Each structure stands twice: as structure tokens, then as C-alpha cells.
């Protein structure tokens, strides 16, 4: 199973990048033995600033074939970490790749939002997309730990 975090914009060397790399490295180390495969970030850039519809075309091209599409969107569903882990485990059991999509400053084009298999909200507030990457990376790592039955996640 391949986990892709597909995001608009290039993340330069920064505290956010350090955190994302750390969480995904930790997930990848633990994930292999759980059949969760590896997680990586793929970035697309709308260099000419043509807007959401053009970003959607770039994003569509970068979605791995057959992957479950999960949008990160404040209008999506708020779910618990154990429920998120169960979803990830479900896609693993179906041998399905998963592609999480994080939009740019204007969000994710409605055409792409409609294509999604699922949409996750980190609450009604709007977060900067770089922080959403960090929070998602941590939740992916946390999900791996929940599926592994380690004490990392405590209720
Ligand atoms: C700055 S936000 C764009 C907000 C934009 N107004 C919209 O309608 O989506 C950039 C990206 O961060 C993610 N994001 C921001 N807040 C979020 C939240 N509360 N839950 C989930 N994703 C969020 C979404 O993927 C969004 O496309």
C-alpha cells in the first residue's frame, strides 16, 4: 500500500518540513511490518497562478491510479484518530493505495472534491496548508501506531 500526501505548493526548508519528514519517516519504519507500505509527499505547483481549476488538473494528473482519494477540507467529516486508523487499515486490507489531497490558498476545486472517496476536516477553522500537512503526517503516523497496538495513542 502506498500513501501519498498530494499538496499544492513547494515546502522549503522549514520547521514544518522537519516535522513532516520526521513523522513520515517514523511511519515508514513502522508501516512496512504492518503492510502499510510507505508514505511520501508529492507537490504540484501552479506557477502561473491560474487558480483552483488549473491546480485541480495538476492534482488529478498526480493521483496514483486506483488510489482512494481523500480530500482535506474544513467542510469534510471530523473523525477520531482510531476511526482514521480503521479507515487506513481498511484500505490496506483492500490492497488499495490512498492519496490525501491538500489544496492551495483557494482550496480544492469542487470537481475534485466531488471525486473524493472521503473528506476529512480538522475542524471548522481554516488552517494554513503547511500546518495541515504537519497535522496529517502526525495522524498518519498515529494511525500506524494505533494499528500496531503501541501505547503512543492514549485516550
Ligand atoms: C488555506 S486553506 C484553503 C481554504 C479555502 N478557503 C477553502 O475553501 O478550502 C488550504 C488547504 O488547507 C486544508 N485545510 C485548511 N483548513 C482545514 C481544515 N479545517 N480541515 C481540513 N483541511 C483544511 C485544505 O486542504 C485547504 O484546501
From TrEMBL:
Its EC number is 2.1.1.177. Keywords: Cytoplasm, Methyltransferase, rRNA processing, S-adenosyl-L-methionine, Transferase. S-adenosyl-L-methionine binds at residues 72, 103, 122-127. It comes from the Bacteria. It is found in: Cytoplasm. It is an enzyme of class 2 (transferase). It catalyses: pseudouridine(1915) in 23S rRNA + S-adenosyl-L-methionine = N(3)-methylpseudouridine(1915) in 23S rRNA + S-adenosyl-L-homocysteine + H(+). Its main location: cytoplasm. SUPFAM superfamilies: alpha/beta knot. Belongs to the RNA methyltransferase RlmH family. Homodimer. Specifically methylates the pseudouridine at position 1915 (m3Psi1915) in 23S rRNA. This is Ribosomal RNA large subunit methyltransferase H. It comes from Thioclava litoralis.
Amino acid at each position: 500500500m502506498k500513501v501519498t500526501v498530494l499538496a499544492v505548493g513547494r515546502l522549503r526548508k522549514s520547521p514544518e518540513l522537519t516535522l513532516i519528514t520526521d513523522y513520515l519517516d517514523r511511519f515508514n519504519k513502522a508501516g512496512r511490518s504492518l503492510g502499510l507500505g510507505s508514505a511520501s509527499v508529492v507537490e504540484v505547483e501552479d506557477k502561473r497562478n491560474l487558480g483552483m481549476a488549473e491546480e485541480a488538473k495538476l492534482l488529478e494528473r498526480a493521483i496514483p491510479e486506483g488510489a482512494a482519494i481523500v480530500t482535506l477540507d474544513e467542510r469534510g467529516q471530523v473523525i477520531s484518530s482510531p476511526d482514521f486508523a480503521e479507515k487506513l487499515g481498511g484500505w490496506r486490507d483492500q490492497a488499495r493505495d490512498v492519496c490525501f489531497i491538500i489544496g492551495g490558498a483557494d482550496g480544492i476545486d469542487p470537481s475534485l472534491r466531488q471525486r473524493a472517496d472521503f473528506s476529512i476536516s480538522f475542524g471548522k477553522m481554516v488552517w494554513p496548508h503547511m500546518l495541515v500537512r504537519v497535522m496529517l503526517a502526525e495522524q498518519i503516523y498515529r494511525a500506524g501506531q494505533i494499528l500496531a497496538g503501541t501505547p503512543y495513542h492514549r485516550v
